[in-house]
Amino acid sequence: MQLTIALVSLGVAAVAQAAPFPGRWGKPGNSTAPSNSTSAANGTALTHNVTDTDILNFALTLEHLENAFYTGGLQNFSQDAFDAAGLPPAARGFYEQLSQHEQTHVDNLTTILGDKAVKPCIYNFPVNGNVSNFVAISDLLEVVGASAYSGSAKFLHNKDFLTTAATILATEARQSAWINNAVRGGNPWSTAYETALDLNQVFTLASGNIVSCPSTNLPLPVQANPALTASPADAAPGSNLTLSFTPSPSANGTQLFAAFLSGNTPAFVPLTGSAPFTITIPPTLEGFVFLAITNSTEKTDDSVTVAGPTFLNFPFNSNNTLIQLAH
To answer: Which pTM was predicted?
Structure first.
């Protein structure tokens, strides 16, 4: 059985299966947001009057990140490196195709946005010369990408843009299924529904790999939530998990919940006592799960998110038995 906890940064999460994470912006202790993020008091303010340009640039920001990751990774790892890691013979060739998909997504969104299109940022992907780390990070990127498109579709007004986003979402989901199943030997899906994440929730996960962005980029209507950490690394459904986070002052005295986001049926566990909080992971969870701290059980969007999310993975086989991933 294997549990992956991505405390903040997508990249670092994959490197050491729940090793400690750097700061939200790719460096330990650095709390300065990338220059194309916007600060606001809460998620409601951030998503008020969000335009189609905002959402397409948000999508382009994620596509730039993925494109840079795959381009750099494939330049560093030859077919021999993939073979030496015991990966399927066809894996690198399909990764080449996947990389081309991301470049096409970048090109298409850039064309649509014209002179308003954001440019690539500087990234930090802690692959550390290990092709297995590359595979694990790619898995996280695709899962978050699919959840990002699922959650941001509600903000788009132009039907043509919505169709473009839907077709990218479908491809991201297929890529995610291929990586986790054909490459890593795990489940190709988690539930009957993709988990939709809100804008700040996605940015909290993705921004861990962003070091800085061009000052000329249009600001994005997003901000990273306070970091959420969870331990131990080998926690499994039905076992205890200790949560640490620093909520905003507005959350003082408010009942908080650990919200396990899986498909369209989140599970909530009330936090009791004082920090750090210890909870029991719902025993029925499996597959990819996002864990956030909320102040409500009525919804799970940015307006009620106090910290996180972080990413958990409980891989399973065709018999619904939790397993250890091959890579």
So the answer is: 0.87
